[in-house]
């Protein structure tokens, strides 16, 4: 039984000090004061024992939306008093300590009979994963208001913190500029890119000669050009490496976090008509979503990615690519988001690419720790900068050599910083479609 004495109790206790102060030569007053104090304490303890939070008082916790990384989420505590008397409550919520608190998680409320009250605060999650809320602590006044009784209501609940879709869509918009995805597709049609025939139109200066329809030209008596559109219903499979090198941190997040948001940006862009799938692998396959499109598929991707964490072991590219070959029969653009150190350290990746070719088109995307080209751009001013630039140049050379080997095996390669990963991946995807490589 947990309780604390109220202000009323201490006021009544102070009243007992009056006869005690006058009891210097009056033992009877001293005994009366002692009897009064003991009786007051006994009554207060009985009041605490008898105090119970009524069953018709309900406390509930509500969230304004699902939690996402670095996004502020409103938490609302609602108190419904369905009893016939007014209640004075102090309510304190137990939130995950890893989250950043904005506002006060504790409030004192006077809830009248047959009414409800509430208070709100805000939480920001620092990373993806599962976080635990505890019970709601409630301190309420006893029937005689001599004590505050404390109890806990509700059950601990776990909440999921998902990748931030706003960040993914901002990357998509950054890659496409001010155009929507549909506008980008229409621009490609106008330029005559793609492989699917759409329609015929009059020739305009700049059209390629290979697109001229000579039969239509002979029939109409003027040059006519075939207009193509980018193929729809194509397939892209994003394979995310969750191995040792993806544990490296860039600012406040790991390389795996950057890969997750880039993958979601690409899957969000699939509303243009393509099917996007997802594979997360380390030494084994952690998650797989067959290629589809639509809002439900994107929600499934969020569920698959919210709890994924990198492992401190090397990934098995051969196992991952064998899985892709066995489960993706249709020709696909297989985007492998990983990291490379040099040709020697990337030997398994390079030797495993043959498992994807020639049915699939692999695109190996590597995440650099920093913009090394910016490091070597300026002339060094001292010995330390000269040493730094020489190391950066060597790393650039080794990474480029490994990526050239990827291209020599019929794949595509892209080396970017974490900040540029999502928009550059989307730009590369558009180029692949416009060039008709699938």
Task: Tell me about this structure.
- With 438 residues, this protein is of the alpha+beta class.
- The chain has four domains: 3-50; 57-162, Immunoglobulins (Immunoglobulin-like, Sandwich), CATH 2.60.40.10; 178-229, no CATH class; 235-434, 3-Layer(aba) Sandwich (Rossmann fold), CATH 3.40.50.410.
- The chain contains 13 helices and 22 strands.
- The protein has helices spanning 7-15, 17-21, 27-50, 165-176, 181-190, 214-220, 255-268, 295-305, 317-327, 347-352, 372-375, 383-408, 421-434, and strands at 3-5, 57-63, 67-68, 72-81, 87-93, 100-102, 106-111, 115-124, 129-133, 136-141, 147-153, 157-162, 196-202, 224-229, 235-241, 249-250, 253-254, 275-281, 285-292, 332-338, 361-368, 412-417.
- The strands form six sheets. A six-stranded mixed sheet has the order 19-18-15-20-21-22, with helices on both faces. It has a five-stranded antiparallel sheet with strand order 1-11-10-5-7.
- Strand 10 and strand 11 (147-153) form a beta hairpin.
- Helix 4 (165-176) crosses helix 13.
- The longest helix is centred in the C-terminal third of the chain and has 26 residues, at 383-408.
- The radius of gyration is 34 Å and the shape is elongated.
Beta content comes to: 25-35%
Quickly count the domains: 4
CATH homologous superfamily heading of the largest domain: von Willebrand factor, type A domain
Uncertain ranges: 178-193
Instruction: Sketch the major β-sheet.
Output: 6 strands, mixed
CATH topology annotation of the largest domain: Rossmann fold
What topology, given as strand order, has the largest sheet?
A: 19-18-15-20-21-22
CA gyration radius, whole angstroms: 34 Å
Number of strands: 22
Judging by the overall fold, what is the CATH architecture of the largest domain? 3-Layer(aba) Sandwich
Q: Would you state the CATH class of the largest domain? A: Alpha Beta
End-to-end span in angstroms?
71 Å
Shape: elongated
């Amino acid at each position: 039984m947990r309780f604390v004495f109220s202000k009323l109790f201490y006021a009544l206790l102070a009243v007992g000090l009056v006869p005690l102060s006058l009891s210097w030569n009056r033992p009877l007053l001293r005994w009366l004061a002692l009897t009064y104090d003991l009786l007051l304490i006994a009554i207060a303890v009985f009041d605490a024992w008898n105090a119970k939070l009524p069953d018709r008082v309900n406390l509930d916790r509500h969230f304004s939306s699902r939690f996402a990384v670095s996004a502020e989420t409103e938490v609302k505590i609602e108190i419904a008093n369905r009893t016939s008397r007014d209640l004075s409550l102090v309510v304190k919520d137990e939130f995950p300590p890893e989250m950043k608190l904005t506002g006060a998680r504790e409030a004192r409320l006077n809830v009248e009979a047959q009414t409800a009250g509430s208070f709100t605060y805000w939480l920001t999650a620092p990373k993806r994963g599962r976080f635990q809320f505890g019970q709601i602590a409630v301190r309420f006044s006893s029937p005689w208001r001599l004590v505050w009784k404390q109890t806990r209501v509700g059950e601990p609940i776990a909440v999921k913190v998902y990748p931030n879709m706003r960040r993914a869509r901002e990357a998509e918009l950054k890659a496409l500029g001010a155009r929507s995805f549909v506008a980008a597709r229409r621009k490609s049609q106008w330029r005559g890119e793609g492989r699917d025939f759409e329609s015929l139109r009059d020739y305009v200066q700049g059209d390629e000669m290979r697109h001229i329809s000579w039969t239509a030209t002979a029939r109409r008596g003027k040059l006519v050009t075939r207009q193509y559109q980018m193929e729809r219903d194509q397939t892209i499979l994003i394979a995310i490496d969750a191995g040792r090198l993806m544990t490296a941190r860039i600012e406040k997040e790991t390389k795996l976090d950057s890969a997750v948001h880039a993958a979601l940006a690409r899957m969000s862009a699939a509303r243009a008509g393509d099917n996007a799938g997802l594979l997360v692998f380390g030494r084994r396959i952690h998650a797989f979503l067959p290629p589809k499109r639509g809002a439900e598929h994107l929600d499934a991707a969020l569920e698959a990615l919210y709890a994924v964490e990198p492992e401190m072991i090397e990934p098995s590219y051969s196992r991952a690519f064998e899985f892709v070959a066995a489960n993706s029969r249709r020709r696909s653009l297989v985007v492998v988001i990983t990291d490379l150190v040099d040709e020697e350290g990337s030997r398994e990746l390079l030797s495993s690419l043959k498992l994807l070719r020639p049915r699939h088109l692999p695109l190996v995307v590597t995440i650099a720790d920093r913009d090394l080209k910016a490091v070597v751009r300026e002339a060094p001013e001292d010995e330390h900068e000269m040493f730094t630039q020489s190391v950066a140049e060597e790393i650039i050379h080794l990474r480029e050599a490994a990526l050239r080997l990827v291209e020599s095996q019929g794949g595509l390669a892209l080396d970017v910083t974490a900040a540029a990963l999502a928009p550059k991946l989307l730009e590369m995807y558009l180029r692949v479609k416009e060039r008709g490589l699938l």
